[in-house]
Amino acid sequence: MSASPVRLRPEILAQAAYQQGKPARANDFKLSSNELPFAPTPRVLDAVAGVSEYNRYPDASARVVRERLAERFGVSPDEVLIGNGSVSLLYQAVLATSGPGDEVVYPWRSFEAYPGMAVVAGATSVQVPLTAGHALDLDAMADAVTERTRLVIVCTPNNPTGTTVQQADLDAFLDRIPSDVLVIVDEAYAEFVTTPGAVDATAYLGKRPNVILARTFSKAWGLAGLRIGYFIGDATVLQALRTAGIPLSVTGVAQAAALAALDDEPVIRERVAEIVERRGEIQAALREQGWDVPDSDANFVWLPTGERTAEIEGVFREHGVIVRALGDGIRVSIGEAEATDPLLAAAAEAIGRFPELARA
Question: What pTM did the predictor assign?
Fold first, then answer.
């Protein structure tokens, strides 16, 4: 990187910016960004087309969307905060809770944006390694909490490994966390969960004021390109987080699309069911090939490729499949049905080239 012509914080210069999944070439299958492969529903398209007053600011509080979600989750509208995707709300939470000398605790490997959030706030990241089974180590995370901890993030299903936390385990974990430390349960993939007993953070609404659930319309609801997500939690906490956000960042188009998507819930559920079924088929096929694939409750699977990650990413690209390489592994989104055969062909070739990756 060339030298900056102005004074910038050295920690910002040292931190790599968030990188999204690689773009696909013509005729490639883009399985690198955890997007749904389905086009927006006609209802969503009609709602977007119906927004025409682009010369007017959107409702800064997204009142109608908040009211709709409040009704859905049995809370008050003041207990719902809408943001430009759940990731922007996570940034707000870090900025509102943490600064120089404070610590943000989260699992690692997990969502790639977490480290940058702490850096922007001037806080210190405390990354807690996953278990050997690619799951969150809640005991180790609780042990990592100190008097300097201001925020703890629990990602379930965990991105990129797809593993979930059990409700009973999270209950025990929260009992160990000081009540004045904010805990965000990042449930961006909650709609894809099928494991019995997995966490549903709505269980904490009205019971644990230091717990916020984070969800998004980007994944199961198919609105990744419109950027809208939400927090649900204590109204006083959310009001503080609201002050750390960029005003008017959720467009009227995104708000209209979210309402239409909620109206289309039966269609959305059918689409999610299709992805979940395909996920199971792909996991089974990968394991038959010899891959050590953790159980995923999200719309992606995780291949632990270790030092061979870059080479194996190249194998997938040769087969016209664009995946997400993340240091020690590869995340493969569940895409359209037509992507399954080239995905599995690439995986079979990769495990054939590098048999040391096969499970014992």
Answer: 0.94
